[in-house]
């Protein structure tokens, strides 16, 4: 979604690098993939974006960063809607539960304002170019800090409660939406 939106705004960097594809091999990051097997958490290569192609760099950078988490919430809502309106078997219901939960977690998680996540890109885009330049050298430490928080008990008191609460808020919003448009 990031590459698609960036392309709409005039940046074909990802397309030119062959990254606009559903082929998962094009998106694998060696360390991120390795950590999936070691620690149960990993990541893909970041989508290459060159905001110098954007006509309104700050606003379009924020939009490009938002479409990733937004697409997760849309997918979660679609999965929830299928579950809500369609009688499904237990195995399909279990799949939809995992599908919805995973997309909500990814959407919320990616909105955290830590580098290299989308939330950081959104927040940093709000700063002046001068401040952004000062933040850039610190970004490489963001991944290390992020891993420390996630892989140690620190996450149990910081990020994990936030994500759990956010999942509840999003899921309750889905229920409330349908109760609002389809009152019984």
UniProtKB/TrEMBL annotation:
What Pfam families does the entry give?
Answer: Peptidase_M50
Domain Peptidase M50, by residue range, is 90-135
Protein location: Cell membrane
Q: Which UniProt keywords apply?
A: Cell membrane, Hydrolase, Membrane, Metal-binding, Metalloprotease, Protease, Transmembrane, Transmembrane helix, Zinc
User: Tell me, what is an example of a GO biological process annotation in this record?
Assistant: proteolysis
Question: What stretches pass through the bilayer?
Answer: 30-49, 61-86, 98-117, 138-163
Q: What is its main location?
A: membrane
One Gene Ontology term of the molecular function aspect: metallopeptidase activity
Q: How does it sit in the membrane?
A: Multi-pass membrane protein
What cofactors does the UniProt entry give for this protein? Zn(2+)
* Top-level taxon of origin: Bacteria
- Single GO cellular component annotation? plasma membrane
Q: Which family does it belong to?
A: Belongs to the peptidase M50B family.
Q: What is this protein called?
A: Site-2 protease family protein
**Species annotation:** Paenisporosarcina antarctica
């Amino acid at each position: 979604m990031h590459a698609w939106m960036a392309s709409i705004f005039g940046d074909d960097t990802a397309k030119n690098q062959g990254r606009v594809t559903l082929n998962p091999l094009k998106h694998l990051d060696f360390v991120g993939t390795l950590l999936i097997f070691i620690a149960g958490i990993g990541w893909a290569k970041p989508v290459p974006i060159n905001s110098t192609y954007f006509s309104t760099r700050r606003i379009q950078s924020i939009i490009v960063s938002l479409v990733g988490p937004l697409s997760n919430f849309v997918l979660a809502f679609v999965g929830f809607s299928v579950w809500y309106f369609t009688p499904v078997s237990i195995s399909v219901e279990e799949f939809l539960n995992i599908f919805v939960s995973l997309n909500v977690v990814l959407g919320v998680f990616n909105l955290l304002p830590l580098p290299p996540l989308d939330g950081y890109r959104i927040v940093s885009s709000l700063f002046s170019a001068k401040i952004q330049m000062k933040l850039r050298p610190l970004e490489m430490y963001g991944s290390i800090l992020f891993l420390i928080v996630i892989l140690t008990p620190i996450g149990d008191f910081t990020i994990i409660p936030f994500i759990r609460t956010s999942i509840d808020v999003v899921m309750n919003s889905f229920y409330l939406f349908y109760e609002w448009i389809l009152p019984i």
